Amino acid sequence: MKTPDTQRPRPGSAILRTALRRNARAMVWGTVLMSLYQAGETAFPIALGLIVEHTMQNRSLGALGLSIGALAVIITTVSLSWRFGMRVLQKANTTEAHRWRVRVAACGLQPVARDVDLKSGEVLTIATEDADQTADIVEVVPMLISSLVAVVVATVALGLADIRLGLLVIVGTVAILSILAVMSKRIGASTQEQQARVARAGAKVADLIIGLRPLHGFGGNHAAFGSYRKVSTDAKRQAITVAKVNGTYAGTALALNAVLAAAVSLTAGWLAFGGQINIGELVMAVGLAQFIMEPLKMFSEMPKYVMIARASAERMALVLTAPPVTTPGPQRPAAGGDLEVDCVRYGALHKLKFKVAAGEFVAIAVYQPRAASDLASVLAVNVAPHAYEGVVRVSGQPLADLSIEAVREHMLVNPYDGEIFAGTLRTNIDPSGSSRTISKAVEASMLTDVVALHRDGLDYTVRDRGANLSGGQRQRLSLARALAADTEVLVLHDPTTAVDAVTEQLIARNVAELRRGRTTVVLTSSPALLDAADRVLVLDDGVITAEDTHRNLLAGDADYCLAVAR
Q1: Interval 173-213: pLDDT, tens
Q2: How far apart are the C-alpha atoms of 564 and 527, rounded to whole Å?
Q3: Are 277 and 268 in contact (CB under 8 A)?
Q4: Model-level pTM?
Q5: Are 533 and 522 in contact (CB under 8 A)?
Q6: Residue 316: which of 2, 10, 93, 6 has the closest Cα?
Q7: Which parts of 347-501 are beta strand (E)?
Q8: How far is CA 298 from CA 176, 189, 251, in A?
Q9: What letter would DSSP give residue 228?
Q10: Burial of 344 by CB count in 10 Å (0-12 exposed, 13-18 middle, 19+ buried)?
Q11: Per-residue pLDDT tens for 18-62?
């Protein structure tokens, strides 16, 4: 029998339980030390009350020295327990935050994408701020328990002086926590919404940075800025709402704690005036009334932090518990490099059918750019096999039966907008550090002039997104990375659109030579690459409409000549 949806544990709660479980030992030690700290703090006004009462009865230097020694022991205990307790808890906190950051990053970098309706900027916020706030639960629970210890010790001490003082603290504490528990629920909901809006603003910034050059090119700066300003304003308004809720919560907590402290002090004074407690007990009661405000404040704030941690955990669960977009098969591609697209219907592709033999260099002249993008997405397994009609076969095996990791080791699809990372030319060309064909890839992609231009050569520093490289240099660097991978099957999508005609001719000849004996498919309208291919397939309106060599097509197909001639 299935559990009703209303009874299923929420993913965020499961994340918090995991954090608590694997930090149990550190939390136990932290709780013991912080409880010792709080007990020591509570013992201080108790000791003062006892010292006052004892001194009034036994006026001697020995009694005074003993009292000073007792206070020194309490102060030392308080200092050391706080120092080591916070060290244990903060180490566990930062370690746990690191674990969640790594786990969220690992989910985002898995070969099989997850079905998450979040932008990269939102995932970044989840992997940083939300991971940190979720890990705070490791520190919040021990602080909550230690604060409770302080309240219990104070209650017992006051109750021993007069039962009415103890009952007053118990009733007041329960009332304060009941009121604040209701308020903390609103904080959790408001905080979750704020985190979502801030994440959307971060995602918008990331998108604008990526598209900064095109925005400058067509004058879209003001429209883009207006779009970001709107998203950021929404985040600001929600942040103000959260600040108001937090301010109301903190103010209410402080006021209630002050009322309780005043009530304890006035009650103790009234009892002392009536002779029902002595002067030492009065001093103790007044001291505890002042001291108890701090643990009560901490104790009353903990529900707020628990709700914030839970809200962040719920956002992390959006990434961590999201199902994969597809379930890949377990097999690996067989030896050989043939590639077959059999009646694939997806996006701009309509029953697309062609086959590339192992070791063949085939160029596909695509008349509609969207069709090229859709074909590249299908071959790169960025589109789940169940999301399109037809079958793609690699070495005779259906793509749906193969492991995605194995497919991408066997067949590399290099996008036209290949990302450039901060690092060096070398780390961009060979991220894994295992390629044996870096020098050949650099020569084939005509990146040699960039390497020779700088004293550091391949170790020349590349800024984030290749900001210190020209468009053509970034494109050649991306091509060099694809060639250095030396995969059995290589699919290139418009690899030379940003280079000049002379360089394009050299790249086409070099790629054909370097990839000799390896299967290569190029989606392009470049005459140089089309001419270097063994044969050309014409992709028009989602289907293959012609097939021949580049020169034969130029001579006999007017539409082809018009589309590719420059």
Answers
A1: 788 777 777 776 666 556 556 556 665 555 555 555 555 44
A2: 6
A3: yes
A4: 0.68
A5: yes
A6: 10
A7: 349-356, 361-366, 389-394, 397-398, 411-414, 423-424, 461-462, 489-493
A8: 12, 21, 13
A9: H
A10: buried
A11: 999 999 999 999 999 999 988 888 887 777 777 766 666 666 666
Contacts by residues 493-496 (CB-CB < 8 Å, ≥ 24 positions apart): 493/372, 493/373, 493/376, 493/413, 493/414, 493/415, 493/416, 493/523, 493/524, 494/372, 494/416, 494/523, 494/524, 494/525, 494/526, 495/414, 495/416, 495/522, 495/524, 495/529, 496/524, 496/526, 496/528, 496/529
- Whether residue 241 contacts residue 190, with contact meaning beta carbons closer than 8 Å, is answered with yes
Contact of 555 with 361, CB cutoff 8 Å:
no
Of the candidates 168, 136, 137, the one whose C-alpha atom is nearest the C-alpha of residue 151 is 168
> Which pair of structure tokens corresponds to residue 79?
């200092």
Euclidean distance between CA atoms 381 and 379, whole angstroms = 5
* Amino acid symbol at 269: G
- Alpha-carbon span 471 to 466, nearest angstrom: 9
Which residue shows structure tokens 């370690």? 95
Instruction: Locate 220 and state its tokens.
Output: 């879209």
